[in-house]
Amino acid sequence: MNENLYHEITPEGFGIAIEKDKDLFSKKSPYQQTDVFHSRAFGNVLTLDGLMMVTERDEFFYHEMIVHIPMLTHKNPKNILVIGAGDGGTVRELLKHKEVEHIDMVEIDRVVIDAALEFFPSVSCGLKDKKVNVLVEDAVEFVKNKENLYDVVLIDSTDPIGPGVGLFNEDFYNNVKRALKPGGIVVPQTEGPFAQSENMRLTYKLLRKVFKNVAPYTGPMPTYPGGYWSWGFCSDDVEIPLDSSKIDEKRAQIIEKTCKIYNRALHSAVFAVPNFVKELTK
Amino acid sequence: MNENLYHEITPEGFGIAIEKDKDLFSKKSPYQQTDVFHSRAFGNVLTLDGLMMVTERDEFFYHEMIVHIPMLTHKNPKNILVIGAGDGGTVRELLKHKEVEHIDMVEIDRVVIDAALEFFPSVSCGLKDKKVNVLVEDAVEFVKNKENLYDVVLIDSTDPIGPGVGLFNEDFYNNVKRALKPGGIVVPQTEGPFAQSENMRLTYKLLRKVFKNVAPYTGPMPTYPGGYWSWGFCSDDVEIPLDSSKIDEKRAQIIEKTCKIYNRALHSAVFAVPNFVKELTK
Fold it and tell me: Which residues from B are below 8 Å from A16, CB to CB?
């Protein structure tokens, strides 16, 4: 057996293995342990407390999905809040939308941002944009006194263990909802339907308590547990975008041209989830 | 590191790791090495030449997709040919369709069938059905003299290395096409879009030479490389089923009720593939 394999094995006893070429970075913050290594398969890889967070080669699967589905559903998304997402991939995709005037990005751990700026230039490239306000603080506190401010809120959190645990909580979601403008949309990552089905079930139970319209959408994510990931479309006054033909064609075309995944047909197709995902999230 | 991990690492340097509880079976045939082990995460697992083929816990992702998309697109699928698929999962799903009168299943390696009958009863359960004719022979030879016989042909092959190599070949596909009745549909598995993109590109180049209508459809498959898999819808006279509302509602409802994945909304949604998959398969 290759001694230089990185493993992320779930409590259920399976996971990903990646041949590691070289360790590049390792630093413990008050919040978590951040490591970066290089691999032939995925380029640079960042882990938090040993769990896979981002790789140069497959990050597009995650970032295109969390961003373009809500952004192209919203009619005119100007003010955006991003929670977590210290690597910058979500911000990079947001900046493709010319409607965006301002992005607040609230990441608790500066070490993640610094590691992304140094080792993931293709991911973090938007973090220094003049439209982006990077706040290094606890998002749970940040959203407590915000009201009627944002068109779209994206919650790009870690799993509901460690520093991410406060982001899977009814008070937190009520605060996020209060921070939305009318016509606002919230999308959190909602875990792996196959590998983390119990996390996912609890997350949707919570989201359905807070928002009127809630629907999971799913897609591949090779380096996350089970290779299959989900995000939750949440809004009180925007309908689930089940009809791609209602998406603004001109705006969608501009985004499509820059994407490895996103296209207009896929915009509604991602909401056609397997029966077991419907059951988990009802 | 747990010494009892099964690994399948791709030539690119990444892959799956599964904690193995117990080895159950190991046998070398003239074609390949078959192994079965038990794991907490996936129940029983079968590998061929060390490569993941089927697990009890996630096989439904693959088998529902290869079967129900072509079967519910076809108006009246009576006679079916299955190539490979010795584990029986494809046959089990086919037998859910009451239109089916006869299934020829051509598997080259009896060892796979025997291992499935012994260690995968929930997968192989249809192999002894009276509608099923199991032929232990080389499918490349089998299809050479067949004409106007089958409504649907499913090619549930291994990768284009080892015993499966003859199944990725223009002569073979021309023979399969001749074996189809008018209105016939062929669906081969077409590899992993992310982890085996070059295999996939070559497969679609081949399929487009032989068939008039060809389209990839994709879905999650946790234990296969990259966790993301594809199948190819091929026909000369049946259109790609891009409109779910055209699928026979009554037939689809019967199937849906038995499935963990398949539903009518998903039937067309699976053809809305990411931009990079369109590019690979054009």
Answer: 14-17
